[in-house]
Amino acid sequence: MLKELQVKNFAIIDDATLKFKKGLNILTGETGAGKTLIIEAINLLIGERADSNLIRDREDRLLVQGYFDFSKNKPVIDFLKDQNLLNESDDTEEIIITRELNRIGKNKAFINGIFVQVGTLKQLGNLFIDIHGQHEHQYLLESRTHINIIDKFGKDRISPAKESYLNCLSKYKKKKGELDNLVSLQNRKEERLIDLKYRLDEIEKLNIKNKKEEKDLENEKKILKNYEQIYQLSSDTIGLIKGGHDESFSLSDKIANLEKNLQRLSNIDQSFKKFLDEISSIAVILEELSHYVNSYIADFDYSSERLDYIEERLYRLSEIRKKYGKDIPGLIRYSEEIKNEINGFESIDEDIEKAKRQLDILENDLKEKALRLFDLRTEVSKEIEKD
């Protein structure tokens, strides 16, 4: 509904504002009073061609602005949302359409202050306004509009049947899509199976031990590549704790002497007693560390063959990770997904038959609802003819 129209510098119109009420509004006046100019101004708001000759003498530009209430016009609201010109929270009772034209013929069009192409106004205009006059295109004569007219006229009877039909149609299309996907999958079943089995075989041949295998191998590789440094540092550590050939006292001896001294001091002054437990702990830790390092060196087994194997294994893991764009845990999951898809092919024929049966049921239901809707529309159309 057009609520208000503002026209500035349009032919003989200086500045005029027209407010419209619900129902029938009539403009009357003598020939030349400007009635046709109002219609032409509205035409500008729905994207019709603008001529700079329409600008009032001695003015630089013309402006036409309309305030519309589209709250009950769903096609318009949907169009504005599709064009990103309207948000869910926007007021649909106060939509402003603006058209400007200057002397050099430059057009500007706006919807709610947002710049749009004139073609957008034309598309929008087709959804909410009819201009009936000589040589004008008329909405009522377009066959594509007739169904909507009938549906609106008999909405109390037609709307429930139409909603039921559309719901059924939606289910039918969804099931049809599922069937088409299954048939498409069946058509490329052999090719897809070959590809899936190749991928699964490629991953399973690696015999990935666990999710941490790559990390564990990297750690072992680091140890083997630094075995000389490990041996040297371990030997030095044992020497520091137990003492070497060139040292008269080992770290253990020094800690033991320190503990004796603290014991004697604490016998004299109890304030030293708190350090005794700490020194005892250090002595225990050093002893444990000595045993661990000795055992570590004794069990340490450097193997160039093992290092070569690890580097080759890491290379193969790295290559397959890059190929499939997944980490090791991702590859393990992916192999399970492939197995499930391969197993799914085994039941595809049965799934197709089941989908066909379900589609037949939906199709019969859809035909019944379509015929019911057709009968109601026919009934209402005859009432329109009679009225």
Structure description:
This protein is an alpha+beta fold. Helix content is 62%, strand content 10%. It is built from 13 helices and 6 strands. It has helices spanning 35-45, 74-82, 118-125, 146-153, 155-187, 189-205, 213-225, 227-242, 251-268, 273-299, 304-324, 328-346, 348-386; strands spanning 2-10, 13-19, 61-68, 95-102, 107-111, 114-116. It has a 6-stranded antiparallel beta sheet with strand order 2-1-3-4-5-6. Strand 5 and strand 6 form a beta hairpin. Helix 4 (146-153) packs across helix 5 (155-187), helix 4 (146-153) packs across helix 13 and helix 8 runs antiparallel to helix 10 (273-299). The longest helix is centred in the last third of the chain and has 39 residues, at 348-386. The chain starts with a strand and ends with a helix. The mean pLDDT is 85.
